[in-house]
Amino acid sequence: MSPGFIISALAAVLIACATSPARAEDTKEKAASVKEEDGKHFDAEGNPTFKIENGVVDWYTFSGYRRYHADCHVCHGPDGVGSSYAPALTTSMKNIDYGTFLSIVAEGRKRTSGGKESVMPAFGENKNVYCYLDDLYIYLRARAVEAAPRGRPPKKADKPEAATANEASCMGG
To answer: To bridge 57 with a disulfide, which of 112, 141, 153, 154 should be the other Cys (CB 3.0-4.6 Å)?
Structure first.
């Protein structure tokens, strides 16, 4: 079974089982961390989220920043602010729930608006993206609610052992 198939299947299940519809205007309060497990934070609905205290971002927000700027910024612009080529994810993420985000990144998407077609390629086969989907979601969620400023986070929490283990397992190492 290919990794892309697994990610696509996971995204489909998450969309079908999502506990909440797409959120209209996510807020810092709704995105607040209420639970932490092995260094990863979750909101009240169980979605991965960020934790930023005294200018220190959690590991997953920092990792999401790094992964975003390795693979996504070319189209979506630095820090998710958009470009002439692709939309601002700081805006889009306000209306996209976790399951929808996973599905779009894994499977891609085509849209036609005003006679112009836009295509988001599928990244379900790219380990440098799909192994870090939560990290990307967390970083972009923090940017969307303006919890994380533009640019590289100046301070980050240490990498949790769970993140190292998940990375090794996903990357095949």
So the answer is: 153
